[in-house]
Amino acid sequence: MNVTAYRRGRTVRTIAASIVAAAALSLTAACGGGGDGDSDNAGKANSSATAPASATDAQGADKAEAGKENQAGKGGQGGKEGATGATGATGVKDAKSQTEKSGGGSESEPVGDCDINKTAITVQNVKSPVNHMLLKATNKAGVDCKLVGYPGLKFGAAAQAATPVNEDSKPQAVVMLAPGESAYAGITTSAADGSGAEGGKVDSLEVFIDGSEDPKPVELPGGSVYVDSAAKVTYWQTDAQTALTW
């Protein structure tokens, strides 16, 4: 009787231990399944979080690439416009060159010396300075001309040499005359203090201008003028006041 009771008690303990073990095993399995689920959920969450970031990066890359293309396009267009501008400038230059070659350019013919036969020359007395006269030359030609240097003067038929020039009166540039314009030269006929030598009255005057071989006779005011060794003439000037400065 005691043996049987003992065996029954042992059996009951064994069964109880098995049940406990089975329960523990089930609990462990449940915990393990929950861990896998959490890992999957975490992975999905990470994937969800990563996907938008990747899409954003892709969009940013696309925009950057598009920006590069736009810049390249603008650069190309600028280069094209620059090339067009250069071509235009070359065209203008070539056109100007062709115009000049064909005789339609702005280059003018060189201005020649005034022709004495187309130049009106007169002489007159002046009140100041004393013992001075004013020579005037007017361009009567239909083109521009130049008066180089100074007029050559021959007072009287017996004159052996032209009247000397006053070197202090030399201008900075040659006098240019358009049609109808005039140039002037001042003439000192004699020394104001009477210090001149070989003085006397003359009744004729001949004027030479540069570029002309023959002189032009000019009528003297009053028919005659007193001339001595102090006589001088200035270079051609553009105005009468300057011509009478010396």
Descriptive account of the structure:
The chain has 246 residues and is an alpha+beta fold. The protein is built from 2 helices and 12 strands. The chain has helices at residues 2-101, 240-243, and strands at residues 112-113, 119-125, 132-139, 145-147, 152-155, 175-177, 182-188, 200-202, 205-208, 216-218, 225-227, 232-233. The strands form 4 sheets. The chain has a 4-stranded antiparallel beta sheet. Strands 1-4-6 form a 3-stranded mixed beta sheet, with no helix packed on it. Strands 5-9-10 form a 3-stranded antiparallel beta sheet, with no helix packed on it. A hairpin with a 7-residue loop joins strand 9 (205-208) and strand 10 (216-218). The longest helix is centred in the N-terminal third of the chain and has 100 residues, at 2-101. The chain starts with a helix and ends with a helix. The relative contact order is 0.12. The model is unreliable at 1-6, 29-58 and 72-106 (pLDDT under 50).
